[in-house]
Amino acid sequence: MHLARFPRFALGHFPTPLEKMPRLSAALGGPTIWIKRDDCTGLATGGNKTRKLEFLVADALQQGADTLVTQGATQSNHVRQTAAAAHIAGMKCRALLERRVTTMPASYESTGNVLLDDILDCPYEFRERGLDMNAEGQALAERLRATGAKPYFIPGGGSNAIGALGYVSCAYELVAQADQMGLRIDRIVHATGSAGTQAGLVAGLHAINAPIDVLGVSVRAKRTAQIDSVHRLAVATCELLGARGTLERDRVEVIDEHVGAGYGQAGAETVAAIRQVARTEAILLDPVYSAKGMAGLIAQVRAGTFSKSDNIVFLHTGGASALFAYEALLAEPRSADGSTGH
């Protein structure tokens, strides 16, 4: 499908690399694992939201907006990238941060992505857990409108049909890279949360009739609810694209065994995934999204889900800046002289 029909505002470094992970593959003794480096999109440390924001910011500018309004969890990668995108586009940004994680020390609300929000001069307000955050964000936009501003509301994660075009574009990009390399992709695996990344990939692959399955590792919702959310958005994205044919619900694959104690709460397998990928491939994953996705991939390999001859692409959605907010969980114990014992 012809994406040039949709307005787009350049924000990222594309195409992102598609690289083999030979040391991790060998350590797991399973299929050949590749990584699509969407942590390298370049916008304020990068991440998957950059692709979505290229289409969302373009739509905002086309509508004459002067302020981007959005919402996310405390350590939101999306809010950080939206704030950065606003500066590049000559706009302002306002954000709401949901206290979705309540088990961390007070520093959780001042370091990591929150510190970057401060550096980017993005005013934010906290909201308590459990509210309808998109409704809260829209209410903020209306209050700004009443003061004479021209706000453009972006839902959490940039996950609507316009934002999902960013991952339609990624699907096209990834298939083109694989074709150029002579690489047959058997499965794409990634962390799935607000649904836009997986919905865009599924819609994009459907639109070009590329027979590649996409497995989403849920970071928050139960499997059925996440499938419903992704499928609904993927169908809307296909309609926006004008893609032919029915996108069946069974094209959406999700596992939910790696949510753990909840969103933003990193269990032992998530921490293990962070350390294993750092110590085999020198790639940093984040504890909220990408490490849970990798924990899911590792578990699938160990369960024998994939053939040894398969080529599995892990989509790295970024977020390493949040690692600093999880220092208490990730730091190695130190002896009295300050050494870690390694």
Q: Can you put this structure into words, describing what you see?
A:
Helix 3 (77-88) packs parallel to helix 4 and helix 6 (161-181) packs across helix 7. The chain is globular and about 60 Å long. The mean pLDDT is 96. The protein has two domains: 3-47 and 160-330, Rossmann fold (3-Layer(aba) Sandwich); 49-158, Rossmann fold (3-Layer(aba) Sandwich), CATH 3.40.50. It is α/β, with parallel strands linked by helices. It has helices spanning 22-28, 49-62, 77-88, 113-119, 133-146, 161-181, 196-207, 223-241, 268-281, 290-302, 327-330; strands at 18-20, 32-37, 67-73, 92-99, 124-128, 151-154, 187-192, 213-218, 253-255, 311-316. The strands form two sheets. The chain has a six-stranded mixed β-sheet with strand order 1-2-10-7-8-9, sandwiched between helices. It is 40% helix and 16% strand. Helix 4 (113-119) links the parallel strand 4 (92-99) and strand 5 (124-128).
